[in-house]
Amino acid sequence: MGKSKKNKGGRGGGGGGGEDQFDGGTDVDSVSSVSTALSDLQLAQATEQVSSQDYVFDKYIDDLYEKRGSTREAALGCLVDAFESFVLLDLVENKYATLVSQFINSIKKGSIKEVCLACHATGLLAITLGAGSSSHEIMDESRLQLLRVLQTWPDASKMISALDCLAVVTFVGATDLSETQLSMKAIWDVIHPKSGSNVGIVRKPKPPLLAAAVSAWALLLTTIVSSKRNADSWKESITFLSALLEAEDRAVRMAAGEALALCFELKLLDVFSNEEVEVDTAEASGSKNQLFLNMQALKAKISGLVYNLSMEAGGRGADKKNLNDQRDLFQRISDFIKTGECLEESLRIAGKHGILRVTSWRESIQLNYLRRFLGRGFLKHAQDNGLLHDIFDIKMDRTENMSTTEKVT
């Protein structure tokens, strides 16, 4: 996580929006507004006119208070574009409380499009601020509304957006294990609804939602490497994930495979021997031995399924690209299970020396998730965002991207 300290601030909350849906011509107006407003922000940034940046940014915020839904949607779209295009730390440090308040209002009352944009903007705001008191406050303020979305099972796109947002704000903002576990439990209740609160109808997530939920859960699992590693505590989750390796949907299988690779890396399937753990009774010793045998059998089952998926034949009409992606992923997982070694990945982010390297499943899952969430803004954030520098231990050579004049001065 990032280590920079953030000051609390903001101009306070404000009025929410209505529940109105899209107006006629909204898409054209929104695209035009996003393009124009983003160009304004780019011009202000390029000329280092801080007052102009503030003016444009404040205009976005003011539009979030508007009653008309299409106006709020356009403002959220502009903010998402701005957060992706720049690392706007200086602009948001004293405005984040206002922003998150209005984002929550949009999540609570907005159209499907507005909710999705607001969830994305909330996660991007947390990434911009980095780890610290500000992002922790964002997590605290937004989590309740995000949990309500997950508990009501609305439109699938809303659910996926809420899952992504909850995962990101918790990943950045959580300061202790209990906070992370609370979000993981909420996400697991989407993955495996029977384990959730006792409601009348047991819902079953469709493949896109299920794959998104497994990926979100795995992201948060990467942050609890120092927690207790009692195999008995993880047996149910790992067993269910292993069953997903046989799901019909390829994206679900791949998400489950990555999560299980992380479980192997964290040694969540390992059981301490009786010599390492104090055993008070013969009954306890027998239970420990049985758990050991169960987990060994589960390891063997997963290993076999992973190998089969790495060798899966295409068949007529198969999507060859996705099939090859699956084979490559499960070949890497199979090799890791056998050798304990994770294949190193590298990504050039700037010049000769700006290389991002990942050498574990934990880092690989974090990289893939943040890369997808940041979209086209990933490269910019990898170069300039202290949070990503801390997560991946990126050390940038700043002189490479400077002009001759800048180097001299």
TrEMBL record:
Region: Disordered; residue ranges are 1-30
| SUPFAM superfamilies (UniProt xref) | ARM repeat
Skewed-composition ranges (Gly residues): 10-19
Record's superkingdom? Eukaryota
| Stretches assigned to the Interferon-related developmental regulator N-terminal domain | 33-337
The entry assigns this protein to a family as follows:
Belongs to the IFRD family.
Return the protein name.
Interferon-related developmental regulator N-terminal domain-containing protein
**What is the species of this protein?**
Oryza punctata
